[in-house]
Amino acid sequence: MEVSWLRVLLDNISSYLTLSSMDDLSSNPALKYYTRGEEISNLLKPVLENLIDSDAAPSELLNNGFEELAQYCDELREQFESWQPLSTRIFYVLRIESLASKLRESSLEVFQLLKHCEQHLPADTISPSFEECIELVKLVARDEISYTIDQALKDQKNGVGPTSEVLVKIAESTGLRSNQEILIEGVVLTNMKEDAELTDNDTEAEYIDGLISLTTRMHEYLSDIKQAQLRCPVRVPSDFRCSLSLELMTDPVIVASGQTYERVFIQKWIDMGLMVCPKTRQSLSHTTLTPNFIVRAFLASWCETNNVYPPDPLELIHSSQPFPLLLESVRASSSENSSPIKNGQADAEELRQVFSRSASAPGIVSEVVCKTKRSTNATAAADRSVSQARSNTPWKFPEERHWRHPGIIPATIRETGSSSSIETEVKKLIEDLKSSSLDTQREATARIRILSRNSTDNRIVIARCGAIPSLVSLLYSTDERIQADAVTCLLNLSINDNNKSLIAESGAIEPLIHVLKTGYLEEAKANSAATLFSLSVIEEYKTEIGEAGAIEPLVDLLGSGSLSGKKDAATALFNLSIHHENKTKVIEAGAVRYLVELMDPAFGMVEKAVVVLANLATVREGKIAIGEEGGIPVLVEVVELGSARGKENATAALLQLCTHSPKFCNSVIREGVIPPLVALTKSGTARGKEKAQNLLKYFKVHRQNNQRRG
Fold this sequence. Notes:
5 strands, globular, two-stranded antiparallel sheet, 3-stranded antiparallel β-sheet, Herpes Virus-1, Leucine-rich Repeat Variant, mainly alpha
């Protein structure tokens, strides 16, 4: 059996996971991206080990996916191992972020491919389910600091910002947590700018100059914070404060550039090998520190006049965190809200727990979605304008350079781009999509489908070249193959989160609904439903898709489509029904009856159906419909015989029904739910136990109320 790339991938994942034992990993500015890669690796590893132990032979597409994923995993490991404290943190984090994003998208692609060939794999290789793995990978945080930086540079160029909040976000995300780190970054960037100017790369030099201005603003922001913290009766003159410590100086000395610093701080700076003035970023011709008696005399007089006592610089420099001002400002701004949503991004573990109990606690899902709505909308807006923003700043990561200043370690930054041959081919294919010949269109859509199916980079290139509008127009094609391939291309492209907005903003929602209603092939309908689900990940599109009329045809597909179509429809309906206004539409379209029917284990959709029912049970109309459509007996059966997740979700739905209606409560008890509920309190998941205990407590209250009335 050919498993070479599978073994390489598994070996690379194992090597990546060993990074956790690195002594300096905790100080790495891209630590959060390591954690995200670790989460994905821990999902992949058991699945890959099961595949190796089985007799299953990976397809060519899977082997290609394994190869791509192995490459990204290995490159990411190399980047973490190559980190040097005196290299540029901003470009290092941008590079890591790019690789982490590719790792995430590539792992999604592999799990999607595994899901599509699930029926050909031994049963013991698909635990946990590939679909569950897909959803868990999607929950891995993917906030992009690259967009925030691009936008900040644009705002800075236009003279409208950036705000202090944006500066803090950039500094925190790139590991610039202290004044010293910010100043070092400015020095490194200045060297990079000089190198770019020597090679007449004006675009690169302009971009770096913008970053230098950002670091200068960060330094000024910290200086203002420290000024406020000094609590002096009068404002401290800037000449009396050290640019490194931001504190009043006690032993001011002059360096070769003519600038004055606190002795112990500038000595530490020089001892680190930084032969550059922190403030002017000029090379220091020598390391002699000359006492500045004039500043010392004026400083002493000022302190005596204003009754101010400077801090001991030795105590400051020996503290474990000398200047954590940015961290303090972040904590201060977040202390008012203890929500798991931090800096516009939900904590990955919290969201994973929420997802795992999604239908057992649909109200919690809705609550978290509401909390993240503004963040999601902001991300959506970022996605929509990211291509435009980056096209206005045609920047590429610089190649490795030799540094002229001693003591500065070069950053390891490499640029990997899409093949120019692929871009040339895609541009030709886009012209073919517009051809009047059906044969030409058919060949072009089939080729783009292949290209978009097999490569994260290809999806980016295809979208960047402008294929999406042409593919959207072909959704109305009268040729069944062209229509099916066009919708599948859009589904493949939507795997990239940036492309989601591009697809929706190209007016794809109504054409997708057209395919959903009138598609010639069941494959086209199912993939249309899957694409709508993919787009609905962005919060604002949940509303737009619901208002555009997608829910009724999705319910029709749920009732009469192929098994694949039913599954895609159920997934899309669950995601859409997270938005409160869509719940009633789903219920009125008759989804509950079909969902109850799909609770039959023969369909293999029990968990998909119960998760949607539990979500719909959070509104009055949903409770009534579940009761009237015979949902109570099948929910009780799931509590008794279902999977751990199914038991959790079914119990949540029953709790909603019982607290709504005494009649429903009596029906649930008559179905014999109490014994399996008692068992669930002992052996279920944490969330399942909680729901079961709450339901049993409610039964007790219900019984007492009946006794009083009796």
